[in-house]
């Protein structure tokens, strides 16, 4: 689960973790766009960072507590499309497919996620499967 800053970022950007999602997960900087936030949340699922997942969740939809399935390993993220969610937007959506492996078999989840700004930073609101 642990990942070095010099490792490839789990979100599949092609950059190293330390200059992609890691500073966002560690709250050194805010995700500039909804897509960057979505990527950082995927990476947080990969490294098992529940605190960051809750932090980046809109207060009105966030679960009180979060427990990740230890047997489920997120492997690859494909961004299909984005709508708004840019530097000057207040909301936006990202449609993606997230590939995982659970108990030996591969699967995927396709979702259209909604994001909005909360106190200036992007947060995840909810998703439609
Ligand atoms: Zn990344």
Automatic annotation (TrEMBL):
Residues 33-127 form the YchJ-like middle NTF2-like domain. Signal peptide: none annotated. SUPFAM superfamilies: NTF2-like. It comes from the Bacteria. This is SEC-C motif-containing protein.
């Amino acid at each position: 689960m642990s990942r070095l800053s010099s490792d490839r970022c789990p979100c599949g950007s092609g950059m190293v973790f330390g200059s992609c999602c890691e500073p966002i997960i560690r709250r050194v900087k805010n995700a500039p766009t909804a897509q960057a936030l979505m990527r950082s949340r995927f990476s947080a699922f990969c490294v098992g960072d529940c605190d960051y997942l809750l932090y980046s969740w809109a207060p009105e939809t966030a679960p009180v507590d979060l427990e990740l399935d230890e047997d489920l390993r997120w492997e690859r993220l494909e961004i299909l499309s984005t709508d708004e969610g840019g530097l000057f937007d207040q909301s936006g959506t990202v449609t993606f497919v997230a590939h995982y492996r659970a108990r030996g078999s591969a699967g995927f989840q396709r979702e259209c996620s909604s994001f909005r700004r909360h106190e200036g930073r992007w947060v995840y609101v909810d998703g439609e499967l």
